[in-house]
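Supplementary Methods, section 5.1.

A reviewer requested that the exact input to the structure prediction be made available. We therefore reproduce it here, unchanged from the version used in the analyses.
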Amino acid sequence: MIDDFAKQFTVGFNILGYLLSSVQFGFIVGTLTFALGTISDRFSPSKVFMISAILGALCNIALLLTDITVFQVLLARFGTGFFLAGIYPIGMKIASDYYKDGLGKALGYLVGALVLGTALPHLLKTLSWNSDYKTVIRTTSILACIGGFLIFLCVPNGPYQKPVTKLQLGVIPKLFKLPNFRQAAFGYFGHMWELYAFWGFVPILLKTYAEQHKIDLSISFWSFTIIAIGFFSCVLGGYLSLRIGSRKVARYSLLFSGLFCLISPLLFQLHLGIFLTLICVWGMVVISDSPQFSTLVAVAALAELRGTGLTIVNCIGFAITIISIQLLSYTIDTIDPIYIFLILAIGPVMGLLGSRK
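The structure derived from this sequence is encoded token-by-token as follows.
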């Protein structure tokens, strides 16, 4: 869809890359702003969610304005990313206000929904439903507004919310002085080094295998499957956390995803059925630690700064994804693609070291 949108602009640089990175940059700036302003802890999270959803939808629909310039497009994309900072981290904050126990299960469903949303474009491409980018933009904008209103109307402030009454500068160093918060955050950072780079390069992984074995493979369908299957591992990990705890689920998931990074060159030598099965397993363990590390962050943070803690960890985590994605993009032109996924092992190793007691 975004490819078709980009074609209407004639510029002397790769606008597609800027369209993608501007959203991510907007999200990073947004989460940093929300964290420094302790927005989610000073105001009603449901109201913040609704306002962010509406403003994000307006930035999205602005792409359809006539005679829009490239600068305005990039600004609109930045705005969409900025206001996403008031949706995803705030959603986790809302969940944490409702669950004193069992937060890992609740966030398992929430992150699982994010996984399905991430995988959806690959499914749309498979079904050829995304041929009209204008329809996609209108539909997603309307759904964002509906979702925002539903959260505001149906989800009041949770029973465990402890709002702060005034702006508190210097809360970020205060949070990272807490040992449990710091350990959970470092584990999450290691997980993020691997996650979005893996998701972004799944089509490259599949294409490399298909070319090496000279076979036809539905790249879009299997990309959707490998990413979307993470929904089930997030949910299963949430239920498992009720029995063995979020920390064990998170660390075991990070351990196994790290092992997949290390053996990734060997996967290309396997039979197609075994290869696809193992890549799907990788797609499960690469995300199942995310809701559990977020749970550990929420539990470790001071109750009145829980939303700010989740937001700043998201901010740093997504900033890390830019580095790993750019590193893979650079190395893919210099080494055999079957070896580039070894780089992702850095994240799980550092995450396991950082989150140890």
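The chain has a mean pLDDT of 87. These observations are discussed further in the main text.
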